[in-house]
User: What shape does this take?
Amino acid sequence: MNLNFIKNDKDPGYFKLNNSLLLDTEYHNKIKASIQDIVSFNGHANPNVLWEIIKGRIRDETINYASFKKKTYLQNELKIYSKIEDLDRELNIIYINLLENIKLEKQKLIDLIDQRIKGICFKSKAEWVEGSEKNSK
Assistant: This one.
């Protein structure tokens, strides 16, 4: 068994039209303008040659428009993702601050209850000392 590692250059492949672009009105306008430009400059050419030029121009415009659309889509996706992350961070900060404020207020409430309990205990001891224990003799 022999392994042959020959580096093959990759072909550019073949052009395949993205059908979803056909629903885009901006794409329609670009293609129409491009065809009108080609026909105005090459109106005297053979119809078969003109058709091949139009197909090549449509291919170029389609590739450029699809790559532009993909780039803008990815940029928008990244912007939204970063905004979500920022809002999540902000929410976490607010949540942590709220938790700290709740803990602080609970501690204040516990301190007030402890003071009230100490006062009640003090009053009950005083009453017990004054009224409960009297010498019988």
Q: What stands out?
A: The first helix runs from residue 25 to 41.
